[in-house]
Amino acid sequence: MTQRGSKVPKDAVHHPLFARFYAKMSVSADLKGGIAAYRAELLEGLSGRVIEIGAGNGLNFAHYPATVSEVVALEPERTLRKLAAEAALRAEVPVDVVPGAAEAMPVKSEGFDAAVASLVLCTVRDLPRALSEIRRVLRPGGELRFFEHGIAERRGLATTQRVLDRTVWPLLFGGCHTARDTVAAIEEAGFELGAHRRFRVPNGGPQLPTSPCILGVARRPQDTDR
Predict the structure, then answer these.
(1) 19, exposed or middle or buried, with CB in 10 Å at 0-12, 13-18, 19+?
(2) Domain extent for 128
(3) What's the CATH number where 86 sits?
(4) What confidence tens digit (pLDDT) does each residue in 165-194 have?
(5) CB burial string 119-137: b at 16+ within 10 A, e below
(6) Is the N or the C terminus of the chain less surrounded, counting Cβ atoms within 10 Å?
(7) Is there a domain that residue 30 lies in?
(8) Position 149 pLDDT exceeds 80
(9) What's the pLDDT tens digit per position in 91-109?
(10) Is residue 114 part of a domain?
């Protein structure tokens, strides 16, 4: 067992202006854009100890089922972490909000039954390292539940995404990258990809750089390799 919190400063991520924008935008998207329903689908059937990576302002907390015994929610951005802590007080399951980055989680290996990544893998600085850490903290056979946006299948939009990622988008939107192939990265990290589906958000609306989304599950294989 190892613990990796000492190498990461408390505020490893600092985007106060974006955090305030995201806090308002995400609440509106949940209420008016149907995102809350995707959150509920993402978390359905979870049980045991769960680690949530990049909890943001804690909008997932209300959707955890009663079969979850504990949620450890990592959030590196101070403004969002404060909002998440407030949301944790309203949750129906125990939620502990702590500072921490996905690339070096301050928790022990193989300590969780499931991990949740919800609209966050686009922003991590080192995606392969973050996925390696997720695999480390999951028990063998543990689940990774993911709801992310990524590279579009349509060539024109995919080209736009790549251009934006190399120019202004990450600067304006808290380090977000719209052109990552998250599913491929999950498989390359050694996870077994399970059921998943692709869709657009908002459904039937304009093709925005963050419109192509995927929701699904992957598992850490039943082995002892890190």
Answers:
(1) buried
(2) 16-219
(3) 3.40.50.150
(4) 999 999 999 899 999 999 999 999 999 999
(5) bbbbbbeebeebbebbbbb
(6) N
(7) yes
(8) yes
(9) 999 999 999 999 999 999 9
(10) yes
